[in-house]
């Protein structure tokens, strides 16, 4: 009986040593943070934001404030099963960095994205409880689409300051140029908010705004009221 207990104790000791060794390795490589489930923007380490780490998540809701996403951590046998026991529930608020969404842009996202769809979001900054990110969705086996650029390419928003990144940093201008090029394509094709009025609409507006026409309308209105008296 004593031998069985000593054997069990030895097994637990070895398991503990194995866990300690692997956890040490994970701490060095930064994987412990990636295996943790983040339920709030404040849970995410500052290092992750500074290094622009890319995380995976499951889309839940699309609102005017941004995308509500459930973080999906990296799964590692044994460690993940232990962590699940104390993980809390919550959704991250993810915003499209560098994009000022038009109402039509929010509607487009609601039509384009599916509930529970898996997305990737690269951390660029954090403001209060929101994350400023580049958001990517898979469009096939080897293709992905950046929602930040696609919104601008469709003319469903305008470029804006990328919150969280230093304005004079190389990464800021690299991303900002990409967004400006996408916006320029929509502008050249008159798409979305950049769609110009037709020629007949412009002529009609000019006529309605003409002072002579306005004066004539006022005279006709006065004449009608005089006749009715």
UniProtKB/TrEMBL annotation:
Keyword check for Chloroplast: no
Subcellular location: Membrane
GO CC terms in record: extracellular space; membrane
Predominant location: membrane
Membrane topology: Single-pass membrane protein
Assigned keywords, A-Z: Acetylation, Membrane, Transmembrane, Transmembrane helix
InterPro entries registered for this protein in UniProt: C3orf33-like, SNase_OB-fold_sf
PANTHER family, per the entry: PROTEIN C3ORF33
Protein name (database record): Protein C3orf33
Organism: Eudyptes chrysocome
């Amino acid at each position: 009986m004593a031998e069985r207990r000593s054997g069990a104790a030895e097994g637990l000791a070895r398991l503990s040593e194995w866990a300690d060794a692997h956890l040490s390795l994970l701490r060095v490589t930064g994987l412990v943070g990636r295996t943790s489930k983040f339920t709030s923007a404040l849970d995410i380490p500052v290092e992750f934001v500074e290094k622009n780490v890319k995380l995976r998540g499951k889309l839940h809701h699309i609102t005017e404030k941004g995308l509500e996403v459930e973080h999906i951590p990296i799964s590692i046998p044994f460690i993940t099963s232990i962590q699940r026991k104390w993980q809390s529930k919550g959704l991250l608020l993810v915003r499209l960095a560098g994009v000022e969404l038009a109402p039509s842009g929010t509607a487009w996202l609601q039509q384009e994205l599916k509930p529970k769809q898996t997305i990737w979001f690269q951390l660029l900054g954090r403001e209060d409880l929101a994350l400023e990110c580049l958001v990517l969705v898979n469009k096939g086996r080897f293709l992905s689409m950046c929602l930040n650029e696609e919104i601008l390419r469709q003319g469903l928003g305008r470029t804006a300051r990328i919150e969280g990144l230093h304005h004079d940093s190389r990464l800021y201008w690299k991303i900002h140029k990409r967004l400006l090029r996408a916006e320029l394509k929509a502008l050249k094709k008159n798409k979305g908010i950049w769609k110009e009025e037709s020629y007949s609409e412009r002529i009609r507006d000019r006529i309605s705004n003409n002072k002579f026409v306005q004066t004539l309308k006022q005279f006709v209105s006065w004449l009608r009221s005089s006749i009715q008296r």
